[in-house]
């Protein structure tokens, strides 16, 4: 009986995490990022964009309720399971996966630190620089980088205003990059 009760909860949590992750991926695949803001439409570019949106959600739910912390952990696990699966789809074998996963995890956590610091200080210039450094290395800051930083800042504000109950129930609200920042 207890096993049935816990497996129902696990299935419900999985459905919520799946829904959240699907919304994160949809937000990360907005055409404006790739067509207007020059995010490379490559596996690494997609990793950067999904990672950025995962970070925004994790930032929103950090230091909240137990349910929110559970969502954060499961979302992080799903992100890295997706990265692992993507590496395998690219033909990387079992022996190469751990080394690449460590590198990608370091990249993800390094980026979240830089983005978080810039957002905490409400420093759009630092955010634009961090985004450029990580997503379009070697390129000079331009109007697209500034628009991209505005999008990220607005996305963080939008998520912060969204009731936590909605998020842990499986609903996220990200801004439409083309509609609001389509420069």
TrEMBL record:
Please give the Pfam families that the UniProt record associates with this protein. Ubiq_cyt_C_chap (PF03981)
Q: Which domain of life is it from?
A: Bacteria
Q: Where is the Ubiquinol-cytochrome c chaperone domain?
A: 37-174
- Output the InterPro entries linked to this UniProt entry: Ubiq_cyt_c_chap, Ubiqinol_cyt_c_chaperone_CPB3, Ubq_cyt-c_CBP3-rel
PANTHER family recorded for this chain? Answer: UBIQUINOL-CYTOCHROME C REDUCTASE COMPLEX ASSEMBLY FACTOR 1 FAMILY MEMBER, UBIQUINOL-CYTOCHROME-C REDUCTASE COMPLEX ASSEMBLY FACTOR 1
Q: Which family does it belong to?
A: Belongs to the UPF0174 family.
- Return the protein name: Ubiquinol-cytochrome C chaperone
Instruction: Name the source organism.
Output: Mesorhizobium liriopis
Taxonomic lineage is:
Bacteria, Pseudomonadati, Pseudomonadota, Alphaproteobacteria, Hyphomicrobiales
